[in-house]
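Quick start: read one record
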Amino acid sequence: MAAFFSKFDLHTHSNASDGALSPTQLVQRAYKKGITHLALTDHDCVDGINEAKEAAKGLLTLIEGAELSTLFNNEQIHIVGLFLDTQAPALKEYLKNQKIKRIERAVAIGEKLERQGFKNAYEECKKRAAPGASITRGNYARYIVEMGRAQSADEAFSVYLKKGKSCYVKTQWPDVSVAVKAILESNGVPVLAHPRRYQMTNTKLRELIEYFKSCGGVAMEVGSSQMSPSDRDFIAKLCEKYSLLASLGSDFHVEGAYRELGYNLIIPDFVKKVWEHPLAKPYNFPKENS
């Protein structure tokens, strides 16, 4: 079967957080891949939005977004906000607090990496990122690969950065409800990101979805570049069961296998799509996404 490429990609990253490309480069790549509607959803920041919007003029529709780090039952959960008012006081306050937490975590990870033989790890990652960018585990993963200590970012996570590994740092992120509230108060749509990627049983996943919904959550990512057809169908049925809208996104950070912009982003016909939400109307999504 030929690969499917969606015209919409509503979960991507630039070097304003831990993506490899600048916002301008990301937009240009998306345009070349046939994307018509692109959401920039950097980790706990909107610093790349203005550059991306400028680059998108005449090429594609840029959607203001962010991916917020939260906790549910002591597990890190990501909530994407789409169609955000980036100047909203609620969002600004949330991101200000997150930036402090991210800096503290990044410094702590860097210190642990130094004990593993990576000299000046935090400063080296800052040099490689955009000015003022949030340094995340993704930045460190690419640095570890660059230093020849892992073959891929996934291996770097598995060996050093995942929970339980030598350089993991636990962070007390806000509860899911706090992020959802900030997104709603910023005229945005809260989306539960990549639900199949969390290390939890189906029962625990349902508990997360029910809690997310009870907090005011609106949508969930169904289309994901690395999702199997059976997982996609399972998540779509949960979307339908809990009356959530379906979203889609590659979670693109850097060029690599099976996580390309628009790649494999499929949503079954029986679920309602996030671009049918009233807040999406100004972005003029076409009815067909193929």
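The longest strand covers residues 61-72.
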